[in-house]
Amino acid sequence: MFNIKFNINKILLAIVIILLIALGAVVYWQRSGFEKSYWAVYLDTGDLYFGKLSSFPKLSLSDVWFLQRNPQDTQNPLSLTKFGNAFWGPEDKIYLNEKSVAWKTKLREDSQVVQFIKNPQTVQPQTQSQTQPPIQESTITPSTQ
């Protein structure tokens, strides 16, 4: 009888240790582990956000930027603005209602949006077959591709 309890205790201890290691790995991965990619998230309200997408424990974006319309500026009708710099002083994280997400897509590392987010002061577009204007300050000019 003593031998059976000893074996059960060893098994339970092993399970607890494995779970603690797994939990530690998940927390490390979520906090500082791998470099997360940037995503574009379009909501059914018409808002377009860019940031690092996380789905655990809730769908959220961090390092958030949003596309802002500038109808008075015909030269640059759209601008990319840092969410954390909004006048009401939000944290730089948005929790999203999954039912409100119309679509989401992972952005390539060579995307003009990603290049602007990583270095907002000096972004030069990639040379492509069509000439695209460079992104300046917090403005993205739509291309005619």
| Terminal residue distance | 76 Å
β-strand percent reads 25-35%
Q: Which CATH C-level class of the largest domain is it?
A: Mainly Beta
The low-confidence parts are: 123-139, 141-145
Principal-axes geometry comes out as elongated
Q: Return the average pLDDT rounded to an integer.
A: 81
Distinct helical segment count? 2
Gross CATH architecture of the largest domain: Roll
Biggest pleated sheet: 6 strands, antiparallel
Question: Order of helices and strands, N to C?
Answer: HEEEEEEH
How many distinct folded domains? 2
Q: Might you state the CATH topology name of the largest domain? A: SH3 type barrels
Any overview of this molecule?
The chain has 145 residues and is of the alpha+beta class. The chain folds into two domains: 1-34; 38-118, SH3 type barrels (Roll), CATH 2.30.30.100. Helices cover 26% and strands 26% of the residues. It has two helices and six strands, in the order αββββββα. Strands 1, 2, 3, 4, 5 and 6 form a six-stranded antiparallel sheet that branches. A hairpin with a 5-residue loop joins strand 2 (48-54) and strand 3. The protein is elongated and about 80 Å long. The chain starts with a helix and ends in a 27-residue tail after the last helix.
